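Table 4 source record.
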Amino acid sequence: MHAKQPGMVLKVKAKPGMGDELFKACRELHFNGDADGPVDWVLARSDEDPDLMWAFEFYRDDASFDRHYSSPALQEGRLDEGHQRIADLVADGAEEWGVRTPVHIVSSS
């Protein structure tokens, strides 16, 4: 990880009791072969709520981040099988991805 590396922070709430499935689906999605997908990532579980996930995804550079988030399917709201599986696990009434905030690293260990 390096300074100025682009990323996305996501807060995702699973349906009650589906947190383990959400984590499994997200972990598998990170290995889908997308050349512009995240190169560094962390999935973290809330200590207070086992169905609440924080995801921290970081991309190779701004160009790969832009390509990843500007794909025609994403822009048109079409989900591939992996993303649809995650959407199906998201809590009813929750926004699709809860919190979704683009970031850039300032420093890392």
